[in-house]
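Bug #77: duplicate submission created two jobs. Keeping one. Sequence:
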Amino acid sequence: MIRAFDTLSLPLLRWLDPEDAHRLAIQGLRLLPPLRTRLDDAKLAVRAFGLNFPNPIGMSAGFDKNAEVPDALLRLGFGFVEIGTVTPKPQSGNPRPRLFRLERDEAVINRLGFNNDGAEPVLRRLASRANLGGIIGVNVGANKDSPDRVADYVRLIETFAPVASYFTVNVSSPNTPGLRNMQQAHILDDLLAKVIDARERVRAKAGDSPVLLKIAPDLSLAELDEVVHVARSRRVDGMIVANTTVGRPSSLRETARAKEQGGLSGRPLFRLSTRMVAETYVRVEGAFPLIGVGGIDSGGAALTKIRAGASLIQLYSPLVFKGLGLVDDIKSDLTSTLLRTGREQLSEIVGADAATITAEDWPV
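Kept job's structure:
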């Protein structure tokens, strides 16, 4: 059914304006008939952040911003789904057009600006499916016009703790002015201290809520040193590496469209984001797991990201070009690799190539 869905939908969706296509994809998933979820191979199971993931492949934040179709995505084979980015108040985002495909590069540029329905309706949707199981993370951010952005994050932790499998603190989107400044050590330290404190205050009633930090791929290594130091000292449960890049690799072929402002994702981000996974992995020293994101468009790319140091991975932009069948393709390739190499779990190869990758020339 997934292959049939891809065959029918991909040509239509690629013909439409990217944002209209995204809206239609959400509507299509809402109408998708219930599927019998196929059990994943036990070799693909991952334990991270105190959670048991049936497989390591997650839907990245940005696709299901408003928690409209998390269960449809889980039934399609994702091991977990991250909704959001959610802000306390509804937000329309930046003016359209704000989403662009770079077809020949299999890449996407977005400058959406945290467009979402706001906390209240998203909370209602998550609460209505709270007994259905599955791992649903909530990616949280600050409103563009907020007078106190740290308070926005704290409020969202307190609001969503009863329904979130985990939280992602997003301080790395390039599309909200000044947001990336929150990755500066002294600001980040204050933010994480208050977020962790909020999580602890609601733990008795809401249960445990792992807190992850999502960073930009554009940090310098000195900045990464500081970010990891703060994350470790504040005892976050994990990091997501990485968000979209404001850089434009020299390999891009869609040079005119590449001039659009916003964050670049997809295949051209793969080398940089993988390098950042490896650099983060060696700095974390096993203190917590990582989720690797950026340009994962095949089983081989997923394996590379895992060997760079990612315990879990997330997809979004490559699905625009490869379709939902990519999820099963990656799982099949990972299972075959484990069988061929005599490994029992993916955890046995996490970070195996990190040191080698960090010694290579910097991606350009």
